[in-house]
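Narrative summary of target 7.
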Amino acid sequence: MAVRYKLTKINDNITDSETVKYSVTTVSYGNVNLNDLAEQMSDASTFTYGDVKGMIENLTLMIAEALKDGNTVTIDGLGTFSVTAQPNRDVEIPSKIRAESIKLKSIGFKPSPKLKERLSDIEFTKMK
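Modeled conformation, tokenized:
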């Protein structure tokens, strides 16, 4: 099955350019959740659904703990997870930023070259 996409017009509010530009937005067919993945992995292996689900849940806990400890987490063939941070408020003087004033912004994910390679033959189809 191909990945669906739609074109979205980009509004240029900065310049007076008459050139119309579009961006590509992918449109999901749905969501594959933990239960779906555990079932598929169980069907493709000798592990039970419960074993697989438990391992994935445990993996997410271990990734969270490693990130909390200041590490990045690399899963070969998948990619690398890392933490990004930001101050709680705008600060103009760097000396005023302390550990207490920093919060989690996001968890970054950089896909591995192997994962990108596995997706190299991905097909796209325009949404009607």
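The radius of gyration is 21 Å.
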